[in-house]
Amino acid sequence: MCLSAAAGLNIVTRAGPTGTDDVGVVLPTVAVVVMTLALTLRRRAPFAIPAGTWLSSATLSLVDGSLIAGHAPLSIVGMIAAVLLGDLRDQNQSRAGLAVVVASAATVAYQDPTHTTGDLFFIPGLFAAGWLVGFTLHARTEQTEAAEERAARAEWQRRNEGRVAVAEERARIARELHDVVAHAVSVMVLQVGALRHRLPVEDETGRETLRNVEEAGREALTEMRRLLDAMRRDGEPLDLVPQPGLGEIAALLATVRAAGLDTDLHVHGDAVDLPPGLALSAYRITQEGLTNVMKHAHTHHAEVHLRYSIDSLELEVRDDGVGPTATDSLGHGLVGIRERVTLYGGSMTAGPTETGGFALRARLPLDPGLTA
């Protein structure tokens, strides 16, 4: 707005005291003001308006050679239009804009009555440099946008993979816990059946009550098997092996040693019998911790610590390796461990140790009423 007002005032002032009555001056003045104001609408026509600015300048210079040349506000408007043409997304339009800028600037310079031979090269070259500035800015903007898009895509992929990992781990935990619960219900059904057969024949009420309990238990087992089938992925085989617990830690460490990782087990405190679900989670946490050591720690030695206390079980898997590299991914494994720890209201930490290496620590609260 300021540039257009300044351009119009400059033209009228140079026209002389009687210039405002001359149609040959008023019309070009109006045209110049409209031309500069049009740049404010460039978003609607990114190519047409800046290019039209230069073509209008060239056309007005054909009407009066001194109308455009020598006006500082118009030179600024022309430079802005050149930069805008260089900054176009469409490369073909941008190159066409360069041709418009150079040809129009050469026309304006040639029509100036006071021009020199050097002006015919310097003025078009000056505005071509403005176009080059816009072109360079657009290239850098594209690089920045591309980098931001890649970062956003990577972040989205990371979050999506994290959600998938959480869902898969929760499904795995649910399947394992269903196995534990199904085993417990099976034991209950068998015990109820055995008790029913021991009751006297005369105790029909008691036998009928136990029969109902036994049937309800069998129905529950049937529904749990269906639920497990629904949660099992296509092609996943049936797991016929009993779910492991801390009693199988020694066998786990033997398997890890056979794979080439020397592992020591340290038990602190008096071991207690744990609920099957909690014992299973403790086993899986230890297993995942050792798996991460073998994959990412770049070491041949690890230690497993089990610390029993009155109200908690603490597990620690540590190594003396160099730790994960920038390309390693511990995220999914730690997601699974975190899900298991959270399920029992516990806490976990994972990271480098002060003495070097990497340590995974998990604390699982114990319910004194469920331990023996």
Write a concise keyword list for the protein shown above.
372 residues; alpha+beta; Heat Shock Protein 90; 5-stranded mixed beta sheet; 5 strands; 63% helix; elongated; disordered N terminus
Report what the structure shows.
- The protein has 10 helices and 5 strands.
- It folds into 3 domains: 2-145; 166-231; 246-370, Histidine kinase-like ATPase, C-terminal domain (Heat Shock Protein 90), CATH 3.30.565.
- The chain is 63% helix and 10% strand.
- Strands 1-2-3-5-4 form a 5-stranded mixed β-sheet, covered by helices on one side.
- The chain is elongated and about 125 Å long.
- It has 372 residues and is an alpha+beta fold.
Short description:
The chain is of the alpha+beta class. Helices cover 63% and strands 10% of the residues.
